[in-house]
Amino acid sequence: MPLFRPQLHANLTDVTSDQHHARAHDHSSALDGATLSPAGGVNFSSQISPAALTASVNDYNPNGGDTAFIWHLTTNGSNWNITGIVAPAVAGAMHWIANTHATANITLVHASASSAAANRLNLPNLTNIIIGPYDSVLLVYSGQLGRWRALGT
């Protein structure tokens, strides 16, 4: 599959991907003609730093989390689990979950029945994801599955 839409880029067929992206042009539609825009108008610079996790949490819903893209999470120094994140109002919502603690892990738990079905995490290989110190993971909400999914893992 081409990296870009040839029909929109007839004058760019003999260029590398890097050269292509150095030129200004429209990327607002996908190969199938659908408009490419983040669900709910995601503001990629919006951030929250909620209170430190002091226990494992089900149906996690930090204040401001519904509109923030980047979640800077930390713990009280212990390792804690997140079994689910409250489902967004719009499918396709994304959160970049960053562990800002220097030594503790935050574990995202795959398909835990401790959280409501719509808030659960469907994770790669049906396994938990450990977000180590200063590590992060990108989550997107799948309307088709009714669950959070991790990208790029």
What would you say this structure looks like, in words?
The chain is mainly beta. The chain has one helix and nine strands; from the N terminus they run αβββββββββ. It has one helix spanning 17-21, and strands spanning 47-48, 70-73, 80-82, 94-99, 106-108, 121-122, 129-131, 136-142, 147-151. The chain has a six-stranded mixed beta sheet, with no helix packed on it. The radius of gyration is 18 Å and the shape is globular. The model is unreliable at 1-12 and 24-37 (pLDDT under 50).
Which segments are poorly predicted (pLDDT under 50) over 5 or more consecutive residues?
1-12, 24-37
Helical residues, percent: under 10%
E-strand count? 9
Q: Give the integer mean of the pLDDT values.
A: 82
Radius of gyration: 18 Å
Seen as an oligomer or otherwise, the chain set is single chain
Distance between the termini: 22 Å
Strand order across the largest sheet? 1-2-4-8-9-6
Q: Any idea what the shape is? A: globular
Order of helices and strands: HEEEEEEEEE
H/I helix tally: 1
The largest sheet is: 6 strands, mixed
Output the keywords.
single chain; 153 residues; mainly beta; 6-stranded mixed beta sheet; 23% strand
